Amino acid sequence: MKRLTVMLLCAGMCFPALARKNQDPFPHKKEIYKKGWIDFNKNGKKDIYEDPTQDIEKRIDDLLSQMNLDEKTCQLATYYGYKKALEDSVPTAAWKTNILKDGIANVDEHLNKEIGDPNTLATALAETQRFFVEYTRLGIPVDFTNEGIRGLCARSATSFPSMNGLGCTWDKELAYMQGVIEGREARAMGYTNIYAPILDVARDQRWGRWEGSIGEDPYLVARIGVAMSKGIQSQRVVSTPKHYVGYGDCKAARQWDSRTDPHITPSEMYYIHEYPFRKVFQEAGALGVMCAYNDYDGVPMAGNYHYLTEVLRKEMGFKGYVVSDSYAIGRLNGVHKVTPNFKESGRKAIEAGLNVRTEFNDPTEYITNIRELVLEGKLSMERVDELVRDVLYVKFWLGLFDNPYTGSTKEASDIVSCEDHLNTALRASRECLVLLKNADNMLPLQTRYRKIAVIGPNADSKDYIPAHYGPMGFERFYSVVDGLKSVYQHDDVEINYVKGIDIVNPGWPENELMCDTLTTGEQQSIQEAVELARRSDVAVLVLGDNQRTSGESRTRSSLDLPGHQEQLLEAVVKTGKPVVLVLIWGRPATINFADRYCKGILAAGYPGAQGGLAIAEALKGDYNPGGKLTGTWPKTVGQLPMNIPTKPNANWEPMKYHSVANKGLLYCFGHGLSYTTFRYDDLKIDSVHTQTANVKVTCRVTNTGSVAGDEVVQLYVNDVVSSTTTYEKNLRGFERIHLLPGESKEITFNIVPDDLILINEQKERVVEPGEFKVMVGSSYEDIRLADSFYYRSDIATDGDLQPIEKGKMIDESNFKEEKE
């Protein structure tokens, strides 16, 4: 029965939950709702699993003992929501006879694109939940899952910068606040599980999903990820980070069916790709995780017992449930060819430890296959019970067996996109801005220029805000043109706009492989831009990426500006007028021409719906940008791979040798300028010789300029002599601080043994005695202060534990100390 029971009415939307043809097939079973508990199995007595006072493990044991095979297997699959797999917006009579009659683990993205009013959405999700509580035998509630990497993926939710923008803030407090807001808005609308943050460590700048990654350094990804995950779960909403694990390093950054074959050594897998997940599970207690598409060393993650069970649960201490990235299980036979058919793929995934198959289509075949495998003796009931237990644990943690109706049907509209949330999102849009170049103090513009030409395809567009995995239908949007008109509305400054060129030209992306000529229309539009620039005092070019050039399955073969944007830039520069480039980017770009000829360059990593206002404030000078890059920006794609952390000299390019590859960097990791200047001094290490490998490092930073500003103070550590090669600089601390002119602040960093772990020749994880160099600075290359400490003992301890003998593998659970 296909119908949407959500109706548009005049000024808004209402939800006639019971406006059904003929008799309502689901009258309310009010009798099951008792004082202080719910009679989920409708037997008239309070079972242990229904008793909120009982221990969670006892409740799970009791519920599992009552579940039959059909009910258990339904807890191992997702049913995608309305217009994806579900044909109905709310339950219909058909649900009493299809697979849903026995329950389901979760319903994903249900109605998130269909309903704009949060109160109505909360009502619709509650009506869906009511079916599972009142009309399945045991009343097991569903977990309502949803995406949330740039704000919750729902209409009217608060729009934040994408993960690349969030990374550029280097602001752990802000990441936490974003998580709180996403969790709060999710709870208000009825969602209980958010697929965020993305913890993929990006290693190739061509990768389409760079815009969805925090950056290329595992420590930065971990600290921002821990903060965001904590924020989400503080609202009693599950944080489900993704994509576990190694997904950020697929061969040549290829995507779609070639998301496979990461060229990663076991130590690199540990140092780089496992690191953020380990920290988020151990410190934030994230109760969800999405497994990745890729294989590692020939074993696909969706069927990888070592990574899904031994590493994830036994080493990292993960306690929640694993969902598959869509099609990950089917790819075991369809792409990876490690199983003969879909049924065997399911068996392999379950035995490996993958709890819930999450895919865009009807899960009936998958669930039926599991039932058959158990009855055929090919899959043990014990293994099924183990995986179901994980799912139930999450549902009990969420409180769904105490209050399954989590949405605020009357207050959601007051919570979602409220003024406080929008203000925090605007703060994020501001903090993600990175000042790449500012020759002759070109910026801020202030009111020195009376006629400002605003030119470019991203100047007056929403297309750089990906709707994929994020908010839709947001009401408060500022383009750069809107923002400039707003900040200059009370000044005698004229703002004029022409587009000049599209993001890409006809024939994209095939024509990226060879230069083609400008069309007549492009020539005319570029000429319009040139004429406007000539009539103006300064030109602001807003170029870069949008959803056609960056995002999932948008891997590129070049890092140059897409389409014919470079021709537009060159034409405007040739007018002789001062040019400021605003680069709205999804991935690092080889903007060599702009770096040489533009006076100022301001980079904004997909800055969210209010990004245009933040950009305008920074251009005028109402806001002083203080963000830092989270990746290495090469001068040419031919230099790749090039990233940090890097082994000694792996990125070294001696300029005296003039080969094509030896070009140096355009911008290094951590680079970002300010309208003010900062002095670093007074570096102190509390233990020059330590027996514990616990060290406190302090330094002082002073604003030596004339305006207030933010600085991101970065601490790097190097193991000077090690038994196996290690990275030349490991980021092991950072703080974003705000300083008034002349103000100083002491910054403290705590180094713990986990920061110094090395995998030795025996494949043991150890802290080796010797010298460790400490470097503090404003970027990876701009090191201002340096000193060393020495770990001299033959034992390593965190001070509270028994000593660990030299050479013995370190138990990382000893080092879960929070560093924020």
UniProtKB/TrEMBL annotation:
UniProt-recorded Gene Ontology molecular function terms: hydrolase activity
Keyword Hydrolase appears in the UniProt entry: yes
Keywords, comma-separated and alphabetical: Hydrolase, Signal
Gene3D superfamilies: Glycoside hydrolase family 3 C-terminal domain, Glycoside hydrolase, family 3, N-terminal domain, Immunoglobulins
First and last residue of the signal peptide: 1-19
Fibronectin type III-like domain span: 711-780
InterPro entries associated with the record: BXL, Fn3-like, GH, Glyco_hydro_3_C, Glyco_hydro_3_C_sf, Glyco_hydro_3_N, Glyco_hydro_3_N_sf, Ig-like_fold
Pfam families named in the record: Fn3-like (PF14310), Glyco_hydro_3 (PF00933), Glyco_hydro_3_C (PF01915)
Domain of life assignment: Bacteria
Family named by the database record: Belongs to the glycosyl hydrolase 3 family.
Name of the featured protein: Glycoside hydrolase family 3 N-terminal domain-containing protein
